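Example 4.3 (complexes with small molecules)
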Amino acid sequence: MQVHVADHPLIKHKLTYLRDERTDSPTFRRLAEELVTLLAYEATREVRTEPFPIRTPVAETTGVKLANPKPVIVPILRAGLGMLEGMVRLLPSAEVGFLGMVRDEETLEVSAYANRLPETLRGRQVFVVDPMLATGHTLVMAFEFLRDLGADDITAVCLLAAPEGIQNVQEAVKDIGIPVTLVVGSVDERLDERGYIVPGLGDAGDRLYGVV
Ligand code: URA
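Answer. The structure with uracil bound is encoded below.
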């Protein structure tokens, strides 16, 4: 698995405000969206394109356009929704599917409770968005789910990751059989005993949408 950790002052700047507990939900949502757009630039480096002949006012030339079938963006509900808009802005012709995963706060086990995805993802590049890579269990389950539907290349975009989570994902995807790439805004210090990323930003879903 390839891991890219963004090393850009603008990303660090925006992450700092995102982490700050004084940042309110509307500002948090805006910052998350801006951050995703910056991370998506790196995440889409290998997006598939095909030649596209055009004529400029001066000459004929061949550029590129996104290849068919178009990529699929999959936000992991609910917090991944906060990253969807930024991703779609960069890939407006991508399709969007949804995957609902929930974590048992006691056991930290993850299970799927909803999915709205194309019937098959055969031959599709998939971009999974989920703000927090904590234990990594959610991402691994999502990867296996998407691979079983036929996805042949998966890139996950996360705002923050814990080192333990990255290691878990790295181990788990060794046998997944398709290329997997991870793009993260920052690798934090550790997970605490409740499974929260430290220093992190708290519960991403709650901060995006208020506590429900
Ligand atoms: N999920 C969150 O929203 N925050 C964490 O720190 C870990 C998992």
